[in-house]
Amino acid sequence: MIPFRISVPASSANLGPGFDSMGLALGLYIHLDVADSDKQAFFAHGSSESEENHFIWNISKQVAERYGVTLPSCSVQETSEIPLARGLGSSASAIVAGIELANQLGNLQLTDEQKLAFGTELEGHPDNIAPAIFGGLTISTMLEDDIPSVRLHDIDLDIIAYIPEVELKTEVARDCLPDTYERNYAARASAMSNIVVAALYSKDYALFGKMLENDLFHEPFRKVLISHFDLIRENAKMLGAYGTALSGAGPTMLSFVPKGNGEAVKQEMAKQLEGYQVKLLKIDTKGVSIS
């Protein structure tokens, strides 16, 4: 076996009114370094002892079983730049890494659509899985027998992530949401989402940012769980950001800033947010990759 590396980007889902449908691949990664070995060994991030039941390896075994192959013995070293339970799609990235590991070791030659279908089956929804596979910004949904998705790679924006030390489990953030929305309310919320997408495609970033901050589906209900939600949004806008939104279910927030201004805004925002990692992130345009 020739040693190889699998890299899978983080992702930010929901993006304001793009609730449960819009995801953006970000330049933080899970890496799997794979080499030949006499016996199977999986070393988790920072561990010197092999884990037999690591989440990623278990995903690989599920894929292999689905397609009727036996994976060869190998050594896998996992490293991750993606913080857990921060709204950056860590579980989806791990699922995609496991699928790709089985794909490479089993020579399955899976299509992107097959990876998306299997990943969505495991994750329950495609909004993080799709950008982790395709890169860029993806808009996706689930039909009975298909998962349509559209990709947008050409986004001329800088992105600043505000990552707090505290975790927020998706289940807790999901429990804050209403079970149903009144029809007129849902129609308005859907219209916001439509305009967000149209503004991105037309590169009207001022309008994109404005509508990003007018979500009705989830942010009004989740913001009570997010420390400094209003402060981050207001101060970023004062520094020139087009708009700021929750990343996934939070607690991470993302600001979208004119291209070239990100470093200056990041430096100023970092001064105001003790206990946060404030990062200038690139949009990943490749998705899962092999090197």
Automatic annotation (TrEMBL):
Its main location: cytoplasm. It is found in: Cytoplasm. PROSITE patterns: GHMP_KINASES_ATP. Pfam families: GHMP_kinases_C, GHMP_kinases_N. The keyword Transferase applies. It catalyses: L-homoserine + ATP = O-phospho-L-homoserine + ADP + H(+). Its EC number is 2.7.1.39. Catalyzes the ATP-dependent phosphorylation of L-homoserine to L-homoserine phosphate. This is Homoserine kinase. It comes from Oceanobacillus locisalsi. The gene is thrB.
